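Following the same procedure, the fold was encoded as C-alpha cells, giving this record:
***
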Amino acid sequence: MTLAGKNECGRRAFFLGGITLYALGLNLFLAPNNIAAGGVSGIATVLGSLLPVSVATVIFLINLPLLVASVFVRGWKFTKNTLVGSWVYTGLVYATAWLPVLTTNPVCAALFGGALYGAGMALLVLGNGSVGGTDLVIRLLVARFPSISVGKMALLVESGVIAFSMIAYRDIEVGLYAILAIYICAVFADKALRGFNQGNLCFIITGKDPGLVAAPLMEHIGCAVTRLDGYGMYSAAERGILLTAIRTSQTPRLKRLLSEVDAKAFVVVLPATEILGGKFQHLFLPGEKP
C-alpha cells in the first residue's frame, strides 16, 4: 500500500473512531442523565426525554434541514463529508442505544461523557471529519452574520442549548452538569491534539563559559543543549545563550544545577505544549509505524 493509501486509511480510522466515541459518550453517560452537553445532540437529549421519540431520530430530523440548507449556502463540496458523518453518527447512536447506562450519578456522567466527547472530537479533527450538528449550525450562521466571529457564534449556540435544557427540565443543575461536560470535553480534546509530550523550553543567558554551564545539564539531566551567540545591550558584553527542552519534572533539577554553576544566569522557562524529536517522541504520519 502506498503512503497516500495508508494516510487515507488512517484518516478513515480516526473518523470512524471519533464518531463511535461520540455515540458511546451520548448513550452511556449523557443522554440517560439528561445532560445536554451542547450541539444537536444536546437538543436531541432534551427532546428525546420529553417526547416519545428516540435521541437518534431527533438527531436525524434536526440534521436533515441543516444539510439541505448547507447545500444551498456552502455548496455540495463542503456538505458531502458532513452528510456522511451525520448519517454514520445517527446510525451508531441507534446501534448503541441498547447498551446499559454505566452510571446514574450526574457528576460522574458529565466527567466521563465529556471525556469521551473530547477524545471523539480530537479523532474527528485528525480524520478531517464532522458529524454535522453544532458545527454545521455555526458555519451557516457565520455565513449569514459574517460580523460575528466563529468563537462568539459557538459560544452563543452552545449557551442557547444549555439554556434550553434548563428551561425544558426546569432545573438549573442540568445546565451546570452540561457546562462541566463541555469543559471536560474541551480539556480532553486539547490534550489529545496537542500531545502528551509536554515540557518546558529553557533559555539560559550566561556570562560564563557556555560549555561549563551546559556540561552539568547534559551530564545529570541528559538533555541536549544548543548554544547561540548573543550580545548584552545593557552590559555591552558578549553573552552565551543556551537553549534546551526538558520535561516538566526535570525543571527543578535544572534550576538547582544552574544555581550551583552560575547563580547569576538569566533564565527564561516557557511551557512547550509538545516536544518531538531527540529523546522525545518522534513525529509519524498516520499509517506509519514507529
